[in-house]
Design brief:
The structure is a homodimer. In chain A, helix 3 crosses helix 4. Helix content of chain A is about 25%, strand content about 25%. The longest helix of chain A has 13 residues. The first copy, chain A, has 2 domains: about 110 residues, Cobalt-precorrin-4 Transmethylase, domain 1 (3-Layer(aba) Sandwich), CATH 3.40.1010.10; about 130 residues, Methyltransferase, Cobalt-precorrin-4 Transmethylase, Domain 2 (2-Layer Sandwich), CATH 3.30.950. The first copy, chain A, has a 5-stranded parallel sheet, with helices on both faces. Chain A has a 5-stranded mixed sheet with strand order 7-8-11-9-10, covered by helices on one side. A 3-stranded mixed sheet of chain A has the order 6-13-12. The first copy, chain A, is α/β, with parallel strands linked by helices. Chains A, B: Pathway: Cofactor biosynthesis; adenosylcobalamin biosynthesis. Chains A, B: GO terms for molecular function: methyltransferase activity. Chains A, B: Keywords: Cobalamin biosynthesis, Methyltransferase, S-adenosyl-L-methionine, Transferase.
């Protein structure tokens, strides 16, 4: 079988964050599959076919990609950010595992990209400079009990926390519940950053404390970062920097 | 002051993973500062000055970078991977906070890159497809008690875990201790992957179980990934894929 499947990430929005590897593979593809607004960012060449879809049908998109690759097409599946972090790579492997055995012979590769938390961290300073955890709030099937267990664990371990997909139409209260839970476990003055659409023309940053953090500030384009007990603020004439030192307890 | 400081990451080794933004900023710098083997990867142009150093003097390197930028140079500080994840960005902000107030007026920016866990995850499949934590074992000042607390939290939250810097001359037993601790908390058959030098010519992958994982297999170029209870293996004719489904409990 001559087809292949490449699972790619376009980064968080700034085209200068797309790796040269990803750009080269996109040019070789016969078919490009992804959430329609991501495909709109690309300049496809004549003859390439774009298969845009809604954001809620990841598994259908993954099946279509595998079926086309099995039929001999050169297929690129694109996500925003890194395809391996809350994105299409896991959906493709779910579809592969559940699909016909013949699909397991498909030439598949995943290629890394810049994820939203990295862009947000860069703009803020270095909040991910020490141990951290990463949680998505968008999993509609994830029971609140497991989320609660994970938030408790993040607080018990005094990790920095990056929250993906903090707001969704299906579960609008999750971030509000998460802040409420963390307020019972972490200091009121813990820094909280709302990083919205970083790398796009309308990017914005808002930094506050856990005590003051308002879940209504987040939408689906927002990454929320919550500090550890070590995360610090340096005021500068131009604003300031949020960072977590490399060594635990060094600031005390 | 006309100087500036750009904090950049070269990715985990494959030059095709360096973002175009980082390549452009490197070309504009008058001075490039970093751990000598990272600088050796770059083709500097005539007139650019490379300031190579040992890996253990990050804070000296950060101070030098700030002093040169304050003196009007255009300075690029380079790390492997992403500069914000266990790399130079935090060191620069530590030096900035402790340094002369005049340094706070320096034009500083951090730029994201691909980190080692993302390259490792891509080669393996999609192990970071759901909630995960990231811990560095290299912090010589981090007491074992905090590390133990964090490993316990990772297990209690049933997170996937990425371990950076699993082996060091200063603390050779840390990974051994970490595996021993996790064996008391997680299932014996939990997948463990050793991803070494991914993106370089000598890259290698080794996948085993927590019961069988041997800390001696890791060196400073290795990223260790430990699954959650959800992380699964799909066997294929070419080997297989390790992935964590997007929804918690979906595989049961």
């Amino acid at each position: 079988m001559s087809g292949w499947l490449r699972i790619l990430g376009l980064g968080p929005g700034n085209p200068a964050w797309i790796t040269p590897e990803t750009t080269a593979l996109l040019a070789e593809a016969t078919d490009v599959i992804g959430y329609a607004p991501y495909l709109a960012r690309l300049r496809l060449r004549l003859g390439q076919i774009a298969h845009g879809s809604d954001n809620r049908v990841e598994i259908d998109r993954a099946r279509l990609a595998l079926a086309m690759a099995a039929a001999g097409q050169r297929v690129a599946v694109v996500s925003g950010g890194d395809p391996g972090i809350f994105a299409m790579a896991a959906a493709v492997f779910e579809a592969l595992e559940a699909g016909p055995l013949a699909w397991r012979a498909i030439d598949i590769a995943v290629h890394p990209g810049v994820s939203a938390m990295q862009a947000a961290a860069a703009r803020l300073g270095a909040p991910l400079g020490h141990d951290f955890c990463v949680i998505s709030l968008s999993d509609n099937l994830k029971p609140w009990t497991i989320l609660e267990k994970r938030l408790d664990a993040v607080a018990a371990g005094d990790f920095v926390l990056a929250l993906y997909n903090p707001a969704s139409k299906a579960r609008p209260d999750r971030l509000h519940q998460a802040f409420a839970r963390l307020r019972t476990l972490k200091a009121r003055e813990t820094p909280v950053a709302f990083a919205r659409a970083i790398g796009r023309a309308d990017e914005s940053l808002f930094i506050t404390t856990l005590a003051e953090a308002d879940a209504a500030r987040a939408d689906m384009a927002t990454l929320v970062l919550i500090g550890s007990s070590e995360t610090r603020w340096i005021a500068t004439p131009g604003g300031g920097w949020l960072y977590t030192p490399r060594t635990y307890g060094a600031g005390r």
